[in-house]
Amino acid sequence: MSIAPLARRRLAVTGSEELGAYRVLRVADPDGPPPQPGQFTMLAAAQRWGGGEDERPYLPRALSVAHHADGESHYLLEDVGPGTRRLCELARGDEVLALGPLGRGFATPAPRQRAILVGGGVGIAPLAILQDALALRGMKAVVLLGFRDGDRARGAALLRDARVATDDGSVGHRGLLTDLLAAELAQSGEAVVYSCGPAAMLEAVRALCAARGVPAQLALEAPMACGFGACFGCVVPTRDGYARVCVDGPVFDAAALESALVPGVGH
Questions:
Q1: 3-state secondary structure the chain
Q2: Which tens digit of pLDDT belongs to each residue from 18-70?
Q3: Which tens digits make up the pLDDT trace of 154-183?
Q4: How far apart are CA 225 and CA 61, in angstroms?
Q5: Which domain, by its residues, includes 133?
Q6: Residues 19 and 85 occupy one common structural domain
Q7: CA 77 to chain centre
Q8: Are residues 93 and 182 both part of a single domain?
Q9: CATH code for the domain in which residue 199 is found
Q10: Do both 158 and 247 map to the same domain?
């Protein structure tokens, strides 16, 4: 596991491109530890990071690394509030404050296992770098992605050879992403599922894999303030007691979870 120094680094933004309803923020990080698939970075704009002179600054945002190559990390953003809006505004030449990579990432599948990557919305980000890592090992993965609508489905371009489901049927399968997963699991062969996305989707994936006896690794999303376990703001229940998503996760073995519905996250 890559361990980052517990100090923020001031890094330059090298670009920001629109990808449907999302943006891909590219950040130069030549001296930082290379992230492992599933790890995240606490990211904040170096300037104008807050609501104004009389208001408190925003908390850094925990963002999964989507791609990393040649000393540059990519992050998938969606404008869902003032903090993410500020990050979406950044352009080449701006700077960010970064702490990461943090957390525990995905474990590599065994040679006999067929990897199935299941992602929803901005949760597709850590699956992109996982696909890259598997490709370097000569391993292919089945990619199943779900989105609310066609504009968001353009984010599927972050990965290769993805099969897509949309709520409105504008792209790919009309209906639930778990419909595609159930059909894939019905095929012969030993499989392992890697998933990240909205909590309700993760719970559906967890329950389906449990019913089929298929191992799964789930990357959970939770409110985070620090990113390294000091604040206990991202605690989730597991079968062995409470765990902190930022240091004990964000990737958990699905069998260790009673539920993937994280307290404090809207479902």
A1: CCCCCCCCEEEEEEEEEEECCEEEEEEECCCCCCCCCCCEEEEEECCCCCCCCCCCCCCCEEEEEEEEECCEEEEEECCCCHHHHHHHHCCCCCEEEEEEEECECCCCCCCCCEEEEEEEHHHHHHHHHHHHHHHHCCCCEEEEEEECCHHHHHHHHHCCCEEEEECCCCCCEECCHHHHHHHHHCCCCCEEEEEECCHHHHHHHHHHHHHHCCCEEEECCCCCCCCCCCCCCCEEEECCEEEEHHHHCEEEEHHHCCCCCCCCCCC
A2: 999 999 999 999 999 999 999 999 999 999 998 777 777 889 999 999 999 99
A3: 999 999 999 999 999 999 999 999 999 999
A4: 8
A5: 114-256
A6: yes
A7: 11
A8: no
A9: 3.40.50.80
A10: yes
Q: What is the CA radius of gyration of the chain?
A: 18
Place of tokens 């680094």: 9
Q: Which two tokens stand for residue 164?
A: 């897509």
